[in-house]
């Protein structure tokens, strides 16, 4: 075991937040934390864990809980569990929340599950075949057979979708396809999908750490021009309430050595990847994380 984080995204309950692909309940979260500690890990408070990371004193069994994207369901469902268990976590939020913007990332995910994941994939790839035929054919020809192979929580179709979304289409084409599907379905776009500023301030007062996750959550950060990467993180830094150690997580796990240099210039002390893959010469901006979906699979005996 090595020091790492557990990465959480979506939660569901019986009221406002519907179950979706990969989402877990409050009871699942309690069970996951208990299971992980029985494995020999120690769930360490966010400030103490980050301090140990900066000072180089972390023990191999120390693990920190992390929440990406600043999604409202995390605050509504996970925070009461953490309060009950006396735990604090790192909350990596996108700066757009402070401008009252719900990111297309979360809007599109909500739509995907409203339509039904299988139905969505069928319609998404049908549109690509018809309206983006050249791009579709090229993408299929170049699709690596092992793309995201280490992410066992994804189905083959999940991986194919993410390859086209993150690598092949690019942000403009992808958003064009998605908004077109939403208009065709006459779906009412939901609002208030993000944690708000007041809730982040409450988390800070309770001892949690709020950190960076870029401004608009590009899926392929490392391929952006350096000026755009710099803007993503400087705008993010301007919007989040400052507290304790300055930490971040890489959106979609995407970064380059140049990205790390930008983060160092901004004074970021600790960063997290989105996987547990080993990294040669790993820096403090590349701590590994295990996806909660993988831990759930392990709990169910599926790994």
Provide a compact summary of the structure.
By secondary structure, the chain is α/β, with parallel strands linked by helices. It has helices at 26-38, 46-55, 72-85, 104-115, 117-131, 133-142, 156-185, 197-205, 226-239, 257-265, 292-299; strands spanning 4-8, 42-43, 62-68, 90-93, 209-212, 247-249, 270-272, 289-291. The protein folds into 2 domains: 4-101 and 193-299, Glycoside hydrolase/deacetylase (TIM Barrel, Alpha-Beta Barrel); 104-185, no CATH class.
Structure commentary:
Strand 2 (42-43), helix 2 and strand 3 form a beta-alpha-beta unit. The chain starts with a strand and ends with a helix. It has eleven helices and eight strands. With 303 residues, the chain is of the alpha/beta class.
Supply the key terms:
303 residues; alpha/beta; TIM Barrel; 2 domains; 6-stranded parallel β-sheet; 11 helices; 8 strands; globular
Strand content: 5-15%
**Residue share in helices?**
40-55%
Secondary-structure element order, as H and E? Answer: EHEHEHEHHHHHEHEHEEH
DSSP summary, beta strand count: 8
Q: Number of domains in the coordinates?
A: 2
Which residue ranges are poorly predicted, with pLDDT under 50 across at least 5 consecutive positions?
Answer: none
Mean pLDDT: 95
Per DSSP, the total helix count is 11
